[in-house]
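Let's practice the habit of predicting before peeking. Look at the sequence and jot down your guess about where helices and strands might fall. Then scroll down.
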Amino acid sequence: MVSQDFRRQLEGYGLTTAEILYRLPDHPGLLQTYVWQDYDLAPEFPVLARFLAFWRRELAGPLHSVTVAHSRLIKPSEFRPVDGVFRLH
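Done guessing? Here is the structure:
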């Protein structure tokens, strides 16, 4: 049995981390940090977009900024040309 996360990686999803800065409802001069992490598709980030839509709709703390980092965990291998062949006896 293959995990759902592994299947998503094979479909092109990568690990996405978002640092969300938001203002506290009672103290709008203060910023709080929330770190969100899930598998998502770059560059559209539909999973993150749904989460941010939920945040705006349901939570009282208004968003200040979102910083996103993304990495595909399963990717094609890298090939490097060989400059020469060395034989050892």
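How did you do? Strands lie at 14-23, 31-40, 63-71.
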